[in-house]
Amino acid sequence: MTQKTIIIVLLLVLFSLQIYASAAELPEKIQLYKNDFSTSPDDWLTKNPTRYYWDNESKVYHYLSKGGTSGYTTVKIPLIETGFILEFDVTPIATSKNGAFRFGVGTADANTGTGPLVLVSLENTKYGNIFYLSSITDENVKTYTSSSPQDGSYGGTTIRFEDNKSYHIYVRFDPDQGRTTIRVTDPTTNEFIWGFYTDVNGEMKTGLSYLFITSVGDGLTDATAEGSIDNIDCYILDYTGEIAKAMATPIAEIPKNNVYDDVIPTLAPHITPPPLHTEIEPVTVSPKYKPVATNDTEQQTPASPPSLMIPLVSLAAGILCILYRR
Q: Which pLDDT does position 152 carry in this prediction?
């Protein structure tokens, strides 16, 4: 075999190994919930069908949240006991003073005041129309940030949302870093609008099993927020295969506690919402430090497994050098 042939074979082997290593490093996407509302979402439950409903004409899910009504709409998802990513598009149409659109992952009662909870809000506050990201742990410890430096740990320029404009929102909970991250972009151009993060001071493992739009906990009766939500995508990135294996393993029946398992999926107005946990007051804790504001947020992608390509390339380079010297 000539030196030229040996070199060609080595290059082909290296190329094949690179393809294999790249494929092996891609995480598995475990889908928890996905809906583009192209058809009626029969799995969503609400006791307020005139305010939360599927818009057949626009193919989106309409919301009209009113303070003081404890209204909400919810859909059950697999229990999350690890980190997750939630993406969705939201278009606020009319957000009155003190009105708020609130969407997130939590428990069956859709209460914004008790954990575990990861919640995104678009609120009309004294600082204007502001984006919020908040977390409440199993221990009922709350942390939050907003797009106003006057409210929360964010220290950059105030970023305000506008009614009648769509936003794509990406939220990630990373339990290893103890952090939730938010990134807001234009859904058409993918242009970055705002992003930041907040620390999570505790665990969230006891009930992240519902997605919901909610006004539970909003006490101002004149406050309203109307708009639509679309393209919901909630998932887990599994780099090791252990999460998928654990989710496939049968577990003991979880005792029912304010869960809709026995409720037929219907929009019948007679459905009674679960009792609120108003006796528990969350404790708000400021983040441990106040980082310098940036124009973007890091992707917070978990580190990939170490690649074998570095030692293989070094070995191949050494062999090539020896062959050429001959």
A: 86
- d(CA 315, CA 326) in angstroms, rounded, equals 17
Q: What is the pLDDT of residues 118-139, one digit of tens each?
A: 999 999 999 999 999 999 999 9
Q: How far is CA 243 from CA 21, 80, 90, 237, 278, in A?
A: 21, 10, 30, 9, 34
Q: Residue 106's closest CA among 180, 163, 161, 185? A: 180
Are 135 and 204 spatial neighbours (Cβ–Cβ below 8 Å)? yes
In a domain, 291, yes or no: yes
**Burial class for 225, CB neighbours closer than 10 Å (0-12, 13-18, 19+):** buried
Q: What is the CATH number of the domain that holds 217?
A: 2.60.120.200
Is residue 302 over pLDDT 70?
A: no
Is 117 within 8 Å of 136 (Cβ atoms)? yes
What is the rounded CA–CA span in Å between residue 93 and residue 87?
A: 20
Q: Is residue 19 part of a domain?
A: no
Phi and psi, residue 282, nearest 5°: -70, 145
Interior/surface letters 116-147, b for 16+ CB within 10 angstroms, e for the rest: bbbbbbbbbbeeebbbbbbbbbeebbbbbbbb
pLDDT of amino acid 298: 40
The answer as to whether 312 is a domain residue is: no
Report angle CA 85, 87, 91 to the nearest 5 degrees.
155
Domain presence at residue 175: yes
* Residue (of 147, 165, 173) closest to 89 by Cα position: 165
Q: How many helices (H) and strands (E) does the chain have?
A: 3, 16
- Per-residue pLDDT of 226-265, as tens digits, reads 999 999 999 998 765 555 555 554 434 333 333 333 332 3
pLDDT at 159 over 70: yes
Backbone CA torsion sign across 98, 102, 107, 109: positive
- pLDDT tens profile 86-106: 999 999 999 999 999 999 999
* Domains identified in the chain, total number: 1
Range of the domain at 33: 27-303
